């Protein structure tokens, strides 16, 4: 007998419903990265473990993957960023890897961030959801499987999207609780991954925006009673879906596993994307966007200091923690006098 034919015959007789619940709790790490900016989500692996992780931590904010620092250009005070929103903002301006050099991007705003704006990641999620449901509905009419394929797929999709939207609501709450920048005040804040990084972002709030340092602190991420109850309810419903998976016929189980793989493919794609300021809800004035780029980091910092007083001075100890050259020390000493004059105003 042909060994290959024997293998396929055994696979066809095997019922994967016995391992589907196990598969569904794998891959939470990738899902956490994909849901760092939460929203609609297709049926995929990892949701039960993802939700249990949120409940165990008692916080809705997702741990960031790339540590970065937020520095006030006026005071020089630096704090560690804990916000996935600011992480995405910085990484979305990443430049192509190079042997040296630095890119500093200046973004200007005078408005509070609004709701998240749909982008290619969101549209891809919706397209995947629609595709999964259409295929799950068509398969029984083609004589493949039963209506349970659609019921399981629809239930998993509803629970996935409900969890994503609940976490999104918590993330938007974090933005809404950040303090306003007074109309007469001008806040200039730098975001950088530190020495050795190839990019930095400077956000200039010209009154009316929110304090970026409040966003970086991520103080509003703690789950309240209603959010905790909602996540607990979703975990219980997911447990019911996992139990239903164990009762599927072999054909139904294979079909659900195939549809789940499409959701997993989307999750892997979303985990590799960094969403831009517009998609995150920031209302930057594109006409005023300024990009300073050079192969020598010191040259970039000097130019950045000329664009916005205090920016280069704030970034200088990050990129040059050691002793400077005499001519560099003289140049920065003169700029510090200008900064003192600005603070006195």
Compose a concise summary of this entry.
Helices cover 54% and strands 10% of the residues. It is α+β, with helices and mostly antiparallel strands and 345 residues long. The longest helix has 29 residues.
Q: What structural category characterises the helix and strand content?
A: alpha+beta
Gyration radius, to the nearest Å? 25 Å
How many H/I helices? 14
Order of helices and strands: HHHHEEHEHHEEHHHHEHHH
Largest sheet: 6 strands, mixed
Dominant shape: elongated
Strand order of the largest sheet: 2-1-4-5-3-6
Number of strands: 6
Average pLDDT rating: 83
Strand content: 5-15%
Low-confidence runs of at least 5 consecutive residues: none
Q: What is the straight-line distance between the termini?
A: 90 Å
Give the oligomeric state: single chain
Task: Explain this structure.
The chain has 345 residues and is an alpha+beta fold. The protein is 54% helix and 10% strand. The protein contains 14 helices and six strands. It has helices spanning 3-13, 20-24, 28-34, 47-57, 84-91, 120-141, 148-176, 212-217, 225-245, 250-271, 277-280, 297-307, 311-319, 326-344, and strands at 69-72, 78-80, 102-109, 187-192, 199-205, 290-294. 38% of the residues are buried. The model has no long low-confidence stretch (mean pLDDT 83).
Keywords:
345 residues; 14 helices; six-stranded mixed beta sheet; alpha+beta
Would you spell out the secondary-structure blueprint of this structure?
Blueprint: H1 3-13, H2 20-24, H3 28-34, H4 47-57, E1 69-72, E2 78-80, H5 84-91, E3 102-109, H6 120-141, H7 148-176, E4 187-192, E5 199-205, H8 212-217, H9 225-245, H10 250-271, H11 277-280, E6 290-294, H12 297-307, H13 311-319, H14 326-344
Parallel strand pairs: 3-5
Antiparallel strand pairs: 1-2, 1-4, 3-6, 4-5
